[in-house]
Here is the input.
Amino acid sequence: MKILSEVKLTFSAESRNESFARSVVSAFAARLDPSVSEIGEIKTAVSEAVTNCIVHAYRGNKEKGRIELVLREQENGVLYIKIKDRGCGIADVKKAMEPLYTSCPEEERAGLGFAVMESFMDKVTVKSAPQKGTAVIMTRKILSDNSAADT
Amino acid sequence: MPVVIETEENTVIARLSGEIDHHSAKELRSDIDLAIDRHRPEKLILDFDGVTFMDSSGIGLVMGRYKAVKLCGGCVIIENTGSQIKKVMRLAGLDRLAVIK
Here is the structure.
């Protein structure tokens, strides 16, 4: 897939940066002229992925970990988003992606992060290795006819 | 203020505003729980009118408060949700636990 433009940034894994990540993605996605509903769904998916890194990836670490965000505008109006950490990784990705599964129910995590990402994005790929980290890659095609998509 | 609490008779109304994510949910949770503890309401109304964004952290927030209110025999009513928030709530099946208006 041809890449038309790309942005890459890293930020510390702290909850204040959740809204920052959403704002960056929404500013980048604006060039694809998304509808209000498309941008809302994309922001929600990004929020879930970034929150997972903050809540799970660096749990118990003394130093604050880092999160890498890669955004690409691809051909045919496709938005590519990669959110990657170098944290604890996920031993069983399939289980982690099951709706309502959470490793920390006491913190009121609903266990819906991946379900939200899968329902709001066209494609979600998770690559993870224990002790190495996790990368979530999501794509979404922005429809050009947004007068129809907003209804 | 991310949440304004109003009480009348047996009802607690929590008017939420801003963005609800993992970062903001903690404060909202403790503010609403304080009101539930104090008033033991029959009805908890969560008003989402001022909420501009919500991810699944908001689901945890609603479910947790649902459990707390249910313990004292009350119910939860969710009001004024925009389309993005409604989508997340439906995905979670919240409409089975609370009335979503």
